[in-house]
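fyi for ur records
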Amino acid sequence: MEAVEQLSLHLLDVGKGDAIVIDFPDGSFGLVDTGPSSRGEGVTEWLDQRAQRGKFRFAAITHWDTDHAAGMPGILRRYKPIRFYHPADELPLLEKLASSGDSTNPAALAEEIRRARDKDTIEACLFARDRLDTPEGVDLIALSPDSHVKDELYEAIRCGASWHQVRKLRNRLSVALWLRFAGVKLLLTGEVEAIQYKRMSDLFRAKNEPLHERYGSPQASWIKLSHHGAEGNNPPSLFQYFATQNVIASASAGGANGHPHPVVLHLVASRGGQAMCTRLGQGCGHIQRHQLDPNPMSWIANVSLKQLPNPQQRCYGDVSVKIVRDAAGSTTCQVRGSRTQANCPYGGPSDGEAKLIVTLRPRP
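which gave:
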C-alpha cells in the first residue's frame, strides 16, 4: 500500500515509566511524558533526530510521578517546544500531595519545570475536552481529568484524609489522551483510576456537546494501559467502554512491580486481542509476584518459570504504532516492537509484529 498520509506513535523503552513520541503527517512531532531522568539520553536521541527536520509542537506530562515526568526539565532546557501541557500544578495543592511516605515530590518537580521553561513557551493546564495542538486531520483531546477533581482533592485534604487516600485521589489528576487519525483511534491512559473510565466514555454521549457528534464513537484500536498494566487501574470496564481488545503496556526491566498484571493480560486474551509491552517477560516479574489461578487463567496455567524462554527473546523494546492511509482511502494500523519475541506465553506475536487492517473505506 502506497502511503499518502502517515502518523506514528512510539512508546519508548524507558523501564518503569512512560515516554511517547508522536510523529505527525506534516513532519512535526510531539512528546507525551519523558520517563525517569535516568533514561533521558535515550529519549533525547529520538527527539534530536526529529528536531533537525520538523517542528516540536508540544511536550506534555500526564501526571506528576517521576517515572513519567522527571525528564521534563531537561527536555525543556534542551529544546524549545512551542507548547507545554500538564495537569493541575498549583503549588499549594502539590505540596499537600507530597506527604510523608511519598517517594516523589510533585511540588519540587513542578517548580523545577517552571525554571526550565523557555519564556516563549505557551503553557496550558489540561482538563477533559481540551484539544492539544495537532496538524489538520489529526485529533488529540484530553478525556480526563474532570475540572472538579482539584476541588475533591482540596476537600479530602481539609477533612484529614490519610496519605493513602490522598495518593489514590492524586491519580485522578492524571491526563488521559484520545488520538484519532484516518479513522483509527488510540487511547493513552496516563495513570487514571478505574472509576474514571465511565466518566471518560460518557463525554461521547453527554447531553451538552457530546464528543461523538464530532469524533464518532470512543472505540479504540489500541489502548496504552494505565499504570503499566496494574490490575486496579485496568478493569473490565476499560475494555467495555472503549470496545478494544488490543493493548500496550510500559513496564520495567525485571518486572519488580509485577506489571503488567496477569489478570489484565487474561482480559485481553479472553477478548481475542494482542498484548504488547516494552519489557514484557523481562525477568517474568508478574509470574514471580502473582499467584496464578488455573481456572480463569487456563491459557497460562501450564507455564512454569523453567519453561520460559530467555527473557531477552521476549522483550519488545520500543513499541511503535504506525497508521497509514493510502490514495484510495484505506487505512492500515501496524504495531511492532524493536525486538522480536519467541514462544511468548502471553499472546504476543512470535515475530514481534502485530498487524490490524482497519476496514475503513472512503465516503462516496
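The longest helix spans residues 40-51. thats all i got for now
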